[in-house]
Amino acid sequence: MTEGENEEIEMHELEEEEPLQKEMSSSQIGPLETPRSPEEEEEEEEEKEEEEEEEEEKQNKKVKEKKEEKEEEEDDEDIEIGREFEFGKNARKAKFGNNYISTTRYTLLFKFHKNGLNLFEWIPILKRIPKIRNMQKLSDLPWLQFPFIVQAFLEQFLRVANIYFLIIILLQLIPGLSPTGRFSTLFPFSIVTIFTMLKEGFEDMKRYFSDLAINKGSKATIWNNGKWEKVQWRKIVVGDIVKCENRERFPCDLIALSSSQENGLLYVETSSLDGETNLKLKTCHEATTCINDENVGEISGNIECEAPNKSLYTFSGNVLIHGEYWWTNNIVAPRVNLKNPLASGKIEKICVKVGDIVNEGDVLAIIKSEDFKVEVKSLYDNVNIHEIVVTEGDEVKERDNLFIMKRRMKEYEEKKLNMSDSQQILRGSSLRNTKWMIGIAIFTGHDTKLMMNQKQTPKKQSKVERMTNKLIYIIFVLLILLSLMCAIGTMITVSLQAPKLWYIKEFQDALYWYDILYQGFAGFWTFLILFNNLVPISLYVSVEMAKFVQGYFMSRDISMYYGKDGEDIACTVRSSSINEELGTVEYIFSDKTGTLTCNKMDFLKFGVNGNVYGTGITEIERSNAKRKGLTIENDRPEGFDEDQDFRFYDGEIMTTNEDGSKSYNYFENANLEDSEKITEFFKLLALCHTVIPEKVDGKVKYTSSSPDEEALVKAARELGLEFINRTTSSMTIKIHGSGKEETYTLLNILEFTSTRKRMSVIVRTPEGKLKLLIKGADNVIYERLAADSQHSEKTLKNLEELAEAGLRTLVCAETDIDEEFYVGWNKKFQEALEITDVKIKEKKLEVINAEIEKDLYLVGITAIEDKLQSGVPNTIAELKKGQIKIWVLTGDKQETAKNIGFACDLLNTDMELIELSNTDPKLLSNELENAFFKYKDQAEDIELGLVVDGKKLLVILEDEKLKYIFLKLGTLCSAVVCCRVSPSQKADVVLLVKKNMETITLAIGDGANDVAMIQSAHVGIGIAGKEGLQAANSSDYSFGQFRFLKPLLLIHGRYNYRRVSKIILYSFYKNIVLYITQMWFVFFNAFTGTSVHDKWTVSAYNVFFTFLPIMALGIWDRDISREKVYMFPQLYARGQQNVYFNFWNFLGWVLNAVWHSAVCFFIPMLCLYFPNIYGGLYAGSNPDMYSLGLAIYTSVLLTVTLKAHLEMSSYSFWQIASSLISLALWWLFIFAYGSFYYIYPNYVFLFEETYNILEQWKNMLTLRFYATVLLTTMIACIRDIIHKAGIRFIIPNLYYAVQDTQFYAIQKKLQDPTLDLHEKDILKSRFKRMKEKLINDYPMKQTKPKFTSYAKKMMKKAGITNTTSSSSHRIEETPSDNKNNEEKHHRGFAFSQTENQKSILDMYY
Description:
Elements: H1 3-26, H2 38-76, E1 81-88, E2 111-112, H3 119-122, H4 130-133, H5 136-139, E3 144-145, H6 148-155, H7 160-172, H8 186-217, E4 219-224, E5 227-232, E6 241-245, E7 253-259, E8 265-269, H9 271-274, E9 279-283, E10 300-306, E11 317-322, E12 325-332, E13 345-350, E14 357-358, E15 363-367, E16 373-375, E17 383-388, E18 395-396, E19 401-409, E20 416-419, E21 424-425, E22 430-432, E23 436-443, H10 449-453, H11 463-497, H12 513-530, H13 539-555, E24 572-573, E25 585-590, E26 597-608, E27 611-613, H14 619-628, E28 654-656, E29 662-664, H15 665-668, H16 675-687, E30 692-696, E31 699-703, H17 707-718, E32 721-726, E33 730-735, E34 740-750, E35 758-764, E36 770-776, H18 778-782, H19 792-804, E37 808-816, H20 819-833, H21 838-852, E38 857-868, H22 872-881, E39 885-889, H23 894-903, E40 912-915, H24 921-935, E41 944-949, H25 950-958, H26 960-972, E42 975-979, H27 983-996, E43 1000-1005, H28 1011-1016, E44 1019-1023, H29 1030-1033, E45 1037-1039, H30 1045-1082, H31 1095-1105, H32 1107-1116, H33 1122-1127, H34 1133-1136, H35 1143-1169, ...
Parallel strand pairs: 25-39, 25-43, 39-42, 40-41, 41-42, 43-44, 44-45
Antiparallel strand pairs: 1-10, 2-3, 4-5, 4-6, 6-23, 7-21, 7-23, 8-9, 8-22, 10-11, 11-20, 12-19, 13-15, 13-18, 14-17, 15-16, 17-19, 24-45, 26-27, 26-38, 28-29, 30-31, 32-33, 33-34, 34-35, 35-36, 36-37, 37-38
Helix pairs in contact: 6-8, 8-31, 11-12, 13-30, 13-32, 14-23, 16-17, 20-21, 24-26, 25-26, 26-44, 30-32, 30-35, 30-37, 32-38, 35-37, 35-40, 37-38, 37-40, 42-43
């Protein structure tokens, strides 16, 4: 019986029971239920409604929570197993789409697309309607994606100003409403819109052709129909078996099955992904290394793996291979029982013959004696002896081939093979040093990790642009008020004058109140159209074009080009929309390693048994000695080349002979106390790493993802123990002293992570012992040392001394591993590797790794120098003079960070240095408050510096009160150093300043760990260097060295801020000048709204006649030469103080524009319109309206053009040519326009006004016309000339003084080669005195920190407002956190291996 039938029977039974129940209710014994009143029923209904509403709210809340959880999951980028597919025989199905990619923003046809124009985006009000907002399906619909023209056009109206102009255009189309014609706004708006669309279309077309070249132009080899076949990349589908050859790019994301290299090794270059040119080692799974051209057609299987995600360095999945196929494998000697020592020698007996099927553990041959047996070591049984390479009596040694095996896989032998990042090959990388590789396509097209990580840089809006939007709103409000005022004037005029005017017949008989209101209503829209261009229509285009050209000049600036060390890095502008923001930066947040330093690691010293070896003086030591007034003598021999590739020198360890050979003294000198320990130490350095050796021209070249590791392995080679070979299961080193080679079996690699701060390897020595070798941060290693480890205290002191010298330290240790313990541990380790959930796997591995990384014995310490980049101290000093505060955020230890700060002039001896010493929130709060109230009244008199480490910073950022006290204290300091901070803490510090202060922040870094910080700041700068290109690709601007910040900010930033400010203010000014003349004319035309200007001259005003001068100002104008800017970086503070662009500046320009418009209207009016009364130039005849309009319009053009030149501080050919071209265009236009009727006398509605000025334009040929125009221009601009000259005397400052002072004579003399040294010294002294005198005579106003209203509120709660009296605050002695200091007695090492290389194990093993 179905559910439906059951329901019908139940309903029928209920209907039958109802009458019985009614009868029974009448005969029941006991009190009857009293009938309810209507009021009770209403209350009950209301209660039900309330309950229903509550339930609905609960449901909505649940839906919202689910949505938020979903978004959080997406943000966390959790990896889930979300894809399963077949591969191999008959498996070419495009289940997950093909490999086609498209990076274009627009489409050529109408189509439905997931990324189309979503209604929520275009109609934001829909989000406010609960029933629509909670419709989950609505947001998942495939919205219509429009073709290019429609979509690009619609996107123009994301700007409020464009919506405003569209409304004006529609109003103009209403007959009888527009005084300026129907198309006068449409014409310039169309030009501006078309220009913007063409620019966007051009950029999109470049992307389209780039996609086309990849999709159709690139070809890959896939297995199809029993053969290898070349196909276009776009035709590859998930599950295809792909073959790539050497130097070929991978077409999609692949799982590597096999390669031409031994044991399935292959090398991959990933420069397109992370910018790193070093090769990465990938390894195929042992069970698939046999796949080749002969048997590839026989394999098939299933793959289950994670869903497409953005994680470049992780992968989880399983491959299930089934079907029957053959594969071969070489059995190499000695593959012997691991319990016996490795053997080599004469083959005494071969125990098998060709064709035998053997299983794991079967003996194949006996070498020397029955104690040494060659056994089958493989994952599967049923191995077939295919060929016997040797015969009895042959002498064999390690790595000789004995047998070639064939294995037959059968259906019942299916086994899941765990795949990890070691087998993951990503699109965007290429195959190197490997003849071929075969893989399976797992992600294609937009599902590839490269494409998922590609996103448009978020569009940033500058402070100037935000202010501009506010000014547009102000102008719009003024426009409405002006239109209302004129509409009121219309109503007054109609009510008083209309009945008296005989030619207005409709009002002759009667004039009603609604007639007056209607005239006022219609008049409002007429005046709105008449004055519509008070909002400048070309503003955005002018600014965008200027910024684009500014960006071009910045990218071509030779002073920001880095071409040393084989690099070719120019300044790259990725976001020219914030060019002006570079001129207003107040806070710089900088990484240290690779940003302030070179990220070129030099092995300088090492320590063994508490003794330090190595010589040389670091820059930090020199800086420390200079600070203390001491001198340090170099302990290296004279003539030592400090620029050589390997800078370590210590005669006790190594000397170079006259013939160039090296003597390794610690090998030969038996009396050297630490000889054996030093050898052990260098063996550890040669084995504990993930470096890849390559043979280039007969020499071994190392490539590594970490400069530290490469430096350490290189040091081991230079000092006698060379790492020469690596396979998946072994590492070989060569001892130079004896020439002996030793091979260590590589069993496990425990990867480095930023949390672990260590890496270790487990190896079997040639003697058969199991050892764990480890290196890492000292605080991490010391926690794991055995109780009887020697020299630990003495080594701690060595670490302290090396840290004070600014060296990057690392601790090395080892321990022996029990065989039985290892077997059990390795089983758990391998099981953990097979877990597909990445997070669970990481947690389990963390616990398992900790079980074996203990009871360590100290071997030694390393000390590496990372030199400062050239020009860093000078750059920081100059930026600080410009009132820019610099915060260094680094992962290094506190002493190293402090010493680097002193070396680069960030910190100095005259600075009052505040170092926080507590991690307890209460003690830390007291410490911060005491420091703040102690220095808040002295901040202007003394220079402050603040040093804080990551532990304390974590406490500060988690406490609402503490972080605002910290922020307030930080603003008092000219430099802040945050050490031991994580990437997320870097971003948090930047956001703390950005969100709570009305200031502009800039972040600069070079590594992937700096990306969050770079993207959090207003301006992000990436340094393209040895850490890759991730920071550069995520930034707004990038270049090669930190020192290029100086020209970027002081030159380009300052120039561009001033230029963009002038463009915006001038754009408002020139439109107000023209359109306010229309307002003056309103008083002479009885408020009818008649335009004094021809409609087409009005339309061409912004796009032709006034466009070029302001562009010339915005691109080429320089108020101070580059040399003077470098001499007086103090002038940069004018940008921080918004001197060039603020409301009062804007108001001054507006009032000046009103003055100019009045002059440009009334002077021609007085000279031309009232000739009989005032003896005008047209005495005896009154000019008509259009003749007057031409005179006014020409006066406006000359006035605004001259005003542009008055605002220019320098003149070049292009600046003068732009003005001459603009004025020439006006005369050519008006002569052609006025002659149109004679050329084409037929009526054309677009040009009907040409018939009204057939004769009027000829007035422009008269001398009287030009006399009037020149007089008007002179009267209008004389005020500007007097103002600009007078303000230099009334309000003198450094800016004007620098502009007026001439240094060129002295500079020219200094370049004279005939001058002797004494004369040059006199001139230099004079030059210095002139410069100091200017700075002292005209001190720059200090930029005061400005906090947001929310920050002020929180600070008030914390009791740290400036109004609080310091005397009222009780300053307590803050005890240091002794417990914490004990825990943190030794400092850790900022291990520089990048986190984005995440899994060393997965990548290399």
